[in-house]
């Protein structure tokens, strides 16, 4: 557990929720600071997932440790095609569907509308080939975001919580990562933004995952991600709990400003609840 000298539990006055952050960081919204001992922190947060039936996890930066390769590769792909994109310009696009990013910068560079589709396809193909090589070659350092991640997922499943993944990766990249990292052994469902009309911040991936996992109440769904777009996706979907993690793209203030209910260092910081039975499992079957 975190040392009491390094952590503060802060309560956003407007939201009535909690977030754990490092002391000394600037804050974007008003907080009422309360310093808790490790024991009290465990008590205050141990029921966070008690009413959750499904957790939808982002991949890169949230559950997958890949060092920001996906964004660096997309940036390189655009530069190879003559689009000058700075790190600062790329940052707000973390978590977005890659075609949307390419189209934005192509239009900004003055690409004629009639040529946009061809340019998006060309840059997109360069990106997919490069990311496939970076992720799946023998020297790839792609790994779990935490050494105990699979064990943590199994504990959640033992507690009755379903596990799902959503991503802005193309389907083949997502499936390759799911298999490479062993997520296929714990996932109840997964989906790519390429399988729905719009990716994040639209809520469609979460709603499709609810359908696949037969979870009826969106208030019993938790969305976890490292980017502002993940938080916006969870809030737009109506999730009962939206969690930001500091292991990837965006910082504490950005995640809280986007509407996160809880912010923690990494996904495994969320406490595993005691075994519970989902409401739909307690209902009698509809015989009408």
UniProtKB/TrEMBL annotation:
Superkingdom of the source species: Eukaryota
Give the GO biological process terms: DNA repair
Q: Can you provide one Gene Ontology molecular function annotated for this UniProt record?
A: phosphoglycolate phosphatase activity
List, alphabetically, the GO terms of the cellular component aspect.
cytosol
Which Pfam families does the UniProt entry name for this protein?
Hydrolase (PF00702)
Q: Which SUPFAM superfamilies match?
A: HAD-like (SSF56784)
Question: PANTHER family under this entry?
Answer: PHOSPHOGLYCOLATE PHOSPHATASE (PTHR43434), PHOSPHONOACETALDEHYDE HYDROLASE (PTHR43434:SF19)
What protein is this chain from?
PhnX protein
Tell me what organism the protein belongs to. Answer: Symbiodinium pilosum (Dinoflagellate)
Upper classification of the source organism reads: Eukaryota, Sar, Alveolata, Dinophyceae, Suessiales
